[in-house]
């Protein structure tokens, strides 16, 4: 099944740029072994993990390194047979790089990505741990760039330490009014009031959704509203298990979405920090829930629908996946 998962044309909808840096990329950016070991953490939790991103941020604190980091992350996803990638990153300013130059650099690397095997879109993130004024300023810059690059910048994400800051509904209403799709980290921690507020906003997608389902601590009111909204959840199994928000792979909440045929995609979150690949995340579905080859293919095919690609791009991707399926998956005998 391993080679099937690798060859499967996959759709990645939840990947943070500075969480996706491989050790070879970090070395190229001048990171020392000790920092790389710290970054690639496996003994962490949802509090600790946020300290490791500083290592990546130091490594990408100038345009040249940020360009190289973006380029190599895209290349690594393409090598893993990801055919469509929605890369997300939090614009930030550094000593030698303004917020605008940060975004310009990521865009340049995406536009100059040689690999024709992968289609890349950009989601720009608001860091929830920052003050509202800072998030509002960043959102204005994101809207400006979205208007300049409407086919590349597709959405806005809310991420950052879920124990800090908050979801500002009015910022995301403004984002939506300006044509941005919304993907919001939600229920990464148990936080019923905030989860209800986010569900009422009705984002296009939810990140993690760990404490949504009643079997995983979600209240009846939350679950009722979630079912009514039927919002696709970006499930990041390795991220949740390493951050201890899921007790084990075979107890991961994705099994409820599989059982109840609810909308979800499989994602890496931070393939560098958690030393995973999207192929590996699909292998975990087989190892823990015996998903068939056809089921794994269907998850990819459904994810095209949940993506922020244009209708033409979706049709192109669906055709590619259909052709792959005909050649690679024997029809299941019912
Ligand atoms: C593990 N679960 C998670 N939960 C919430 N936010 C996360 C995250 N993993 C990463 N990020 C967010 O992505 C940033 C790094 O990439 P960028 O600098 O944006 O490219 C982190 O600083 C954090 O804000
Ligand atoms: Zn995330």
From TrEMBL:
The UniProt record lists the keyword Hydrolase: yes
Protein name, per record: Adenosine deaminase domain-containing protein
Family annotation (InterPro entries): A_deaminase_dom, Ado/ade_deaminase, Metal_Hydrolase
Keywords: Hydrolase, Metal-binding, Nucleotide metabolism, Zinc
Superkingdom, taxonomy of origin: Eukaryota
Keyword Mitochondrion: no
Gene Ontology biological-process annotations: adenosine catabolic process; inosine biosynthetic process; nucleotide metabolic process
Family recorded in the similarity comment: Belongs to the metallo-dependent hydrolases superfamily. Adenosine and AMP deaminases family.
Gene: 109545184
Pfam families (alphabetical): A_deaminase
One Gene Ontology term of the molecular function aspect: metal ion binding
CDD domains, per database record: ADA_AMPD
Reactions catalysed, as given in the entry: N(6)-methyl-AMP + H2O + H(+) = IMP + methylamine
Domain Adenosine deaminase span(s) in chain numbering: 9-321
């Amino acid at each position: 099944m391993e080679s099937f998962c690798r060859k499967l044309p996959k759709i990645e909808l939840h990947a943070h740029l500075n969480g996706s840096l491989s050790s070879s990329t970090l070395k190229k950016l001048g990171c020392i072994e000790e920092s790389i070991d710290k970054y690639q953490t496996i003994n962490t939790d949802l509090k600790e993990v946020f300290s490791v991103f500083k290592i990546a941020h130091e490594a990408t604190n100038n345009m040249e390194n940020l360009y190289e980091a973006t380029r190599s992350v895209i290349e690594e996803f393409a090598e893993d047979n990801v055919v469509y990638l929605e890369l997300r990153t939090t614009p930030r300013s550094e000593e030698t790089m303004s917020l605008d130059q940060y975004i310009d650099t990521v865009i340049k690397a995406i536009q100059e990505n040689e690999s024709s095997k992968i289609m890349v879109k950009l989601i720009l993130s608001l860091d929830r741990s920052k003050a509202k004024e800072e998030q509002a300023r960043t959102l204005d810059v994101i809207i400006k760039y979205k208007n300049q690059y409407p086919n590349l910048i597709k959405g806005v994400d809310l991420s950052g330490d879920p124990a800090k800051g908050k979801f500002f509904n009015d910022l995301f209403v403004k984002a939506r009014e300006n044509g941005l799709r919304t993907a919001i980290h939600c229920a990464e921690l148990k936080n019923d009031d905030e989860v209800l507020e986010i569900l009422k906003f009705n984002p296009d997608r939810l990140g993690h959704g760990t404490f949504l389902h009643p079997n995983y601590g979600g209240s009846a009111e939350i679950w009722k509203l979630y079912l009514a909204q039927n919002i696709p959840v970006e499930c990041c199994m390795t991220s949740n298990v390493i951050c201890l928000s899921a007790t084990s792979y075979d107890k991961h909440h994705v099994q409820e979405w599989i059982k109840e045929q609810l909308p979800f995609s499989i994602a890496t979150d931070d393939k560098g920090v958690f030393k995973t690949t999207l192929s590996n995340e699909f292998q975990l579905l087989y190892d823990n829930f015996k998903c068939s080859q056809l089921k794994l293919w269907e998850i990819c095919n459904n994810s095209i629908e949940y993506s922020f690609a244009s209708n033409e791009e979706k049709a192109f991707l669906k055709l590619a996946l259909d052709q792959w399926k005909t050649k690679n998956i024997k029809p299941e005998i019912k």
